[in-house]
Write a structure and sequence with these properties.
The chain is mainly α. Helix content is 57%, strand content 7%. 26% of the residues are buried.
Amino acid sequence: MQFSVSHYILYAVIYIINIMKKKTTQQTSLEAIEAINLALRNSQLSPKALKDAGPAIETLANTLNISKEEAIIVSAIVELAADGRATNRDLASFFYCSNVQMYLYMPVFKSLSEKGYIRTFIRRKSLTSYQLTNEFLSAVMENRPFAKRNASNLDIHSFLTEFTILSDERHEENLEYCSFIYDVRTLINSNLHLPLCKYLKLILDNNSRNDEIITVYLLRACSVIGLLGGGSLTVTECSSLFDTTVDQNVLTRMLQSPKNFFVIEHILEPAITPENSLADVDRYTLTSEFRKKYLKGLHIEARQTMREVSRGTIRCDKIAEKQLYYNATEAAQIDELCRLLKPRNFKRIQKSLRDYGYRSGFACLFHGAPGTGKTETAMQLARLTGRNIIPVDLSQVRDKYVGESEKRTKAIFDD
């Protein structure tokens, strides 16, 4: 039997169609998660249930580039932590297994946390809980492999900004200490072109708990004193970054010791108290020698970045007109705000505020669920009143110390 060229073309087309059908029928990440949860809920993680869920587990693992054990845990967390966090007890109840059985998966939780897939939270007198990171959740929703945000080859300002973000998560959300230290080590090792990171790596290579404490305190000092413009730092002001009060006490003893590592290495020196020009033995500042050697150019870069923390001014004449819909109360409030912000009215308001000794401006807080039009309302108000928009990335200006975030935000607009 002979085949013509047209036969071969026909067979090739059929083959391609079959491949496309196979691709279109492949499960998405969310479909695989649903299938895994249906098979494993109340299953006690039995061999039969794991076999039934096998194809979906393999699909999810391949799509998200995770192990099969990680796929099982991730699926359950997606189900349980949709509006919050999932505890060990929640997971044990979901699978209908003992808490001890869930402890067998602790290496999986640790791996997911270190890779940036989940965040681990520890509350005193409470259970450990887990939550998917926003970046990983986006990868799940978009059915693509997860790639952790690149934080390598940074300049000194960006490096300290990344550390500040990490320390904020540790302070505000009680991020698990081991995950915090893992992220700090990764950040340092990814930026060894910086003299500061080379120095910190030499300290961390000793692999002792005290060296971790030294590194955390030194990085916090660099970010507060060098990046944020603070004058000095105490142990208490960064106590939330440590694992226990024991770590804080260890650091205090190190600083008070005659063989103070930071003083011997010419890193820190007692800060001068402005009130009486005396050195405060509990408050330290970076030495000029250390700043010149490891933070060279930081202040110039920090000042420029404060002006550029916004993602660029949006001109009012470039904003497209959009029709927004509000209820009667909201519409009245928006119309009133628009009237007040008209150039002629606003100048009159500013004069009245100054006459009464107030600052010549006012703040408006828009609140509501995501997608309800807060940002677009601000854009349309800017368009209607002839004002440019300055978007500000709050992750780069927020700080745990009272008043610092406000100062840094104000600096953007003052410039």
